[in-house]
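Design job #97: recover the sequence.
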């Protein structure tokens, strides 16, 4: 199957990839074949460390990882992805149905916890759910980054005014709280709308909220 074998595998593509990580070659090949028949792009790894060394965070996709693996198990991989700030959805698979492990996986954000052997249709359904989750998360992060870049165009004082505008404060209230004149507040409001290329307060509120995602 699609074992990584050169540096080109590290290059991210727009097409989402299902990363299958299992130390059992037969399991890797079977799951990869199942996903590929469903039209999905797949890359397989024998262990989590190999995956972490080669994964490009800009690559969309999801992870299917065995719970029990040498070097780093599935839950440890999940923790490491979280620590690195990679929001890649992960599905934990195992032949050892331990309730405590399932609870830990879900609390850490796993999409699902599947006990082998599992139904092929359930497996593929969870894969598609994970890929959709990743796509939504990437869109949200992209919108947040774009919003933050726009808001960074504002001066510190304009950001203070914008924050109070978002809170619904009237010009007079903003002037009082910031110790400036109402006329100055009006000037700042005009500059804020101009710099952000927006015309209304609701647009400013949406932009302000996007940056928090």
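Job complete. Output follows.
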């Amino acid at each position: 199957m699609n074992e990584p074998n050169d540096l080109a595998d590290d290059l991210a593509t727009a097409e989402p990839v299902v990363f299958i990580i299992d130390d059992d070659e037969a399991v890797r090949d079977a799951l990869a074949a199942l996903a590929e028949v469903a039209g999905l792009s797949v890359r397989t790894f024998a262990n989590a460390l190999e995956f972490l060394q080669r994964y490009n965070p800009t690559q969309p996709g999801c992870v299917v990882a065995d719970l029990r693996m040498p070097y780093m198990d599935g839950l440890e991989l999940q923790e490491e992805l979280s620590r690195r700030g990679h929001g890649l959805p992960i599905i934990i698979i195992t032949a050892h149905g331990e309730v405590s492990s399932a609870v830990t996986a879900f609390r850490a954000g796993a999409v699902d916890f599947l006990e082998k052997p599992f139904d092929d249709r359930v497996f593929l359904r969870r894969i598609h759910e994970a890929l959709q989750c990743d796509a939504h998360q990437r869109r949200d992060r992209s919108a947040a980054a774009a919003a933050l870049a726009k808001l960074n165009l504002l001066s510190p004082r304009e950001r203070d005014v914008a924050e109070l505008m978002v809170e619904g404060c009237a010009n007079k209230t903003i002037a009082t709280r910031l110790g400036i004149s109402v006329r100055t507040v009006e000037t700042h409001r005009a500059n804020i709308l101009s710099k952000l290329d927006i015309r209304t307060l609701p647009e400013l509120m949406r932009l302000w909220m996007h940056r928090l995602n």
